[in-house]
Amino acid sequence: MENVIINSYQYTSFFDHYFSSDEEWLNKPEQPLLNYVIENIPEYVTTVINFGCANGRDFIPFQDKYNCIGFDLAHPSIIKWACKTDNLTYYQCSIEDYLDNFNHNNLDLSECLVYSCVTVMYLTHNNQNRFIQHLLDHNCKNIVLHEYPSDQIHDQGYFNPSKDIADVFTRKHFRPTVQKQPTGFLYLNK
Length: 190
Description:
The protein has helices at residues 16-20, 33-40, 95-101, 125-137, 163-166; strands spanning 2-5, 47-51, 67-72, 88-92, 112-117, 143-147, 170-172, 183-187. The radius of gyration is 15 Å and the shape is globular. By secondary structure, it is an alpha/beta fold. Helices cover 19% and strands 21% of the residues. An eight-stranded mixed β-sheet has the order 1-4-3-2-5-6-8-7, with no helix packed on it. It has a single domain, classed as Rossmann fold (3-Layer(aba) Sandwich), CATH 3.40.50.150. Strand 5 (112-117), helix 4 and strand 6 form a beta-alpha-beta unit. The longest helix is centred in the last third of the chain and has 13 residues, at 125-137.
């Protein structure tokens, strides 16, 4: 596994269990959303990028077939990985630093699936727009965001990009309970 530290971050201890938990649910991939993604992922995709990858649990369905790239705030030494790490590159890097301080030359987003689960909602409205527009401008044709929508405001934030950005996504619920649950925002095989 390759680790790259772009920056060190201070974050609330609430997030610590996402990096090193023994809780069963935190060591299994998000279901059934990722089942849907796997069924619909185009053949040309070679790499899965996960922003807010935590312990890598959502890499598990992809780890044997795809290159995996994770971005999150924790130092690599504290992460107890749930996934295989032989084809994983981990960046200790926020989305803001990814946008402003990351060398994008070696990452062809046209062959990537970009995934995030309850992470983009922590960005400001402007940075949500910047992030998604960046992905689109760099030819990313496969984006899956699992976020709390603005009509189901979560106490930590919600997914609320501008209308023109939101309109590129198909919205689909994957959990049996819709209220107070993340929703899938899908831009697949575009």
